[in-house]
Amino acid sequence: MAIFKANLARARARFNSGRIALLGLASLLTLFLTLPLLALTLRAIPLGIDAWLSAATLAALQLSLITATLATLIALAIGTPVAYILAREQFRGKPLVDTLIDVPMVLPPAVAGIALLMAFGRRGLLGPALSVWGIELPFTTAAVVIAETFVAAPFYVRSAKAGFGAVDRKLERMSASLGISNFKTFFRITLPLAAPSLISGLLMTWARALGEFGATIMFAGNFPGRTQTMPLAIYSGLESNLDSALALAMILVVVSFVILFAARAQSPKGLTLG
Questions:
Q1: 96, 131, 149, 152 — which has fewest CB within 10 A?
Q2: Environment class of 152 (CB within 10 Å of its CB; exposed 0-12, middle 13-18, buried 19+)
Q3: CA–CA separation, 187 and 272 (whole Å)
Q4: Which residues form the domain of 40?
């Protein structure tokens, strides 16, 4: 009995030591991730009204809100059918399609920008055909929307796919047995049940589009009032207007936190990106 108690005490001591070590590492990582944000907040709070409401700040904010919203709406329109098919259908080449949709999420931003130029640039794959119709996409506001859609839409597709996949098919079959059309079943049963994941995906897509930098600067350039979004204005402000850059950076931090919090609240199981 004494030996058992001694072994139990040693086991508890090892468990407590391991737990303390894990808590220490977790605290270290949390501090590492929080410290830069805290430093930014402390530097941005004392800024005067001129920094928060400067013409450069407001112009970049307005353009970012418009383009990010448009990119999210495009992702919703073209991503919903894709997500539904990937969640419900089996077809040859599905793993390839699934992987291709994920690629923009892991591509280096510079690669995404070059790829867009090679596709839609004046000398790109579709450039000559677009020129015939008088359309030139690079270095325009439309290019900003395209770049943001390219890098952000996969976030919506991943989340929507998980949402559609989690819907109980028995409910849909029951609806069909009652003579309700597939179209009505989708909007009355499937869509409402998948809605939390769809909303979560839309929030993440909007946030990703709002923070897009690399592909945008390479495909759309950095022209104030036309293609200069908030991240690009921050980049420019580091050399010319640091206060404006700090204000924009703080706005992005707050927006990112709110979006993440809202997305997690919408999805009971957390963010679903796979």
A1: 96
A2: buried
A3: 22
A4: 1-46
**Which residue type, as a one-letter code, is found at position 178?**
L
Helix H or strand E segment including 194: helix 191-210
- Say if residues 155 and 211 touch (Cβ distance below 8 Å): no
Do the beta carbons of residue 68 and residue 148 sit within 8 Å? yes
Q: How many CB atoms lie within 10 A of CB 68?
A: 26
Q: How is residue 111 written in tokens?
A: 């690669």
pTM: 0.85
Share of the chain above pLDDT 90, in %: 49
Query: Are 165 and 87 contacting, i.e. CB atoms less than 8 angstroms apart?
Result: yes
> Of 235, 230, 223, which Cα lies nearest the Cα of 209?
230
| Together in a domain, 176 and 135 | yes
Residue 107 phi, psi dihedral angles, 5° rounding: -65, 140
Do residues 12 and 76 share a domain? Answer: no
Tell me the average confidence (pLDDT) per consecutive run of 10 residues in the chain, 274 residues long. 55 64 85 91 85 84 95 96 92 91 92 94 89 90 96 95 90 82 85 91 94 94 92 88 87 88 68 47
Asked, for residue 271, whether it belongs to a domain, the answer is no
pLDDT tens-digit map of 39-80: 999 988 888 787 788 888 889 999 999 999 999 999 999 999
Number of domains in the chain: 2
Residue 214, token pair as written in the block: 């690399």
